[in-house]
Amino acid sequence: MPPVAPMLAKAARELPVGDYLYEPKWDGFRCIVYRDGDEVELGSRNGKPLTRYFPELVEAIRAHMPPRCVVDGEVVIAGSDGLDFDVLSQRIHPAASRVALLSQETPASFVAFDLLAIGDRDLRDDPFSSRRTELEAALDRAAPPVHVTPITSDVATAGDWFDRFEGAGLDGVVAKPADVLYLPDQRAMIKVKHERTGDFVVAGFRWYQADRSVVGSLMLGLYDADELHHVGVIGSFPAAKRRELVGELRSYRDPVDHPWSQWADFMVADGGRQPGTMSRWNAGKDLSFELLSPTLVVEAAFEHLQGRRLRHTARFRRWRPDREPSSCTYDQLDVAVPALLADVFGANG
């Protein structure tokens, strides 16, 4: 019975070699499906229900999954250029009418990658290789929008997936020990994610929520012609660095003129979401910010660019006093070559 905390992964720079099974790393909402007859519940990574936001998946699960089962996987939405997390995040909406409309306009898919229980049997104490075999048998007749993730025991194939599937919007590759039991809330798997670096204009910052005397995040911008677009943030710093940033940013605060000073005129391309507005995930979260003179350049690591925004929070690498802000353009970023999701789902032949 829900909730069950999902098993997690720890990050690594390279794929491990040994008795591992490798899967593509999907970029969506982690979700554990609980089905008991007509009763279906979708549980998020933190145990909160997702069921009301994806009514089309509830129907698909009733049609394509065993009558009694618990399945771990990922909810994703496929767009014309691969997986689209921004569109997926729009599905978390308080209005039932809006959810119903989006379920038809941007239907979601469920990608299964582990089987926790079937019938009266709890499989969490079985090795992953055995659970995977049972998952394939349980979903052997599944059809879209329910999928079983590709898997391989060959590290060379996994490396090929790491490179080739990025253009379809996947995050990287997950390596799972073949004999690992299902360990809720433990980092028993290994994930290897893509990482690139680029130069960005630091045009604003937010104070740290837990301590308003230190910096919480840096707001990043890139130029498209003469327009400076907000593309994401750097938001993870050691405590000492947060204090250090206060001094480093002091001379850039309170600029006389700034391209982001009038948010009514500044809309982020690819979605029209204005920086500084209410958080979709936490209505009480303060997203107010202070402007910085857009002359400071930082080198930051990022995973991938989705549309015209960074998909995940970037990571600070170093200041770049040798770079002109005008050189911080979209063109300087290395972008993955688009790929078809059909190639991903066909990876097992």
Task: State the CATH superfamily name of the largest domain.
Answer: DNA ligase/mRNA capping enzyme
Instruction: Enter the CATH topology name of the largest domain.
Output: D-amino Acid Aminotransferase, Chain A, domain 1
* Cα separation of the termini: 34 Å
Strand content: 25-35%
Q: Low-confidence segments, ≥5 residues, pLDDT <50?
A: 264-274, 276-284
Largest sheet: 6 strands, mixed
Helix content: 10-25%
Mean pLDDT: 88
Q: Could you characterize what this model shows?
A:
Strand 14 (211-224) and strand 15 (227-234) form a beta hairpin. The chain is 18% helix and 35% strand. By secondary structure, it is α+β, with helices and mostly antiparallel strands. The protein folds into two domains: 8-194, DNA ligase/mRNA capping enzyme (D-amino Acid Aminotransferase, Chain A, domain 1, 2-Layer Sandwich); 196-332, OB fold (Dihydrolipoamide Acetyltransferase, E2P), CATH 2.40.50.
In short:
The chain is of the alpha+beta class and 349 residues long. It has helices at 55-64, 85-89, 96-105, 128-138, 155-164, 239-249, 341-345; strands at residues 8-11, 20-25, 29-36, 39-44, 68-76, 78-79, 82-83, 109-118, 121-122, 146-148, 172-177, 187-193, 196-208, 211-224, 227-234, 290-302, 305-306, 309-310, 315-319. The protein has two domains: 8-194, DNA ligase/mRNA capping enzyme (D-amino Acid Aminotransferase, Chain A, domain 1, 2-Layer Sandwich), CATH 3.30.470; 196-332, Beta Barrel (OB fold (Dihydrolipoamide Acetyltransferase, E2P)).
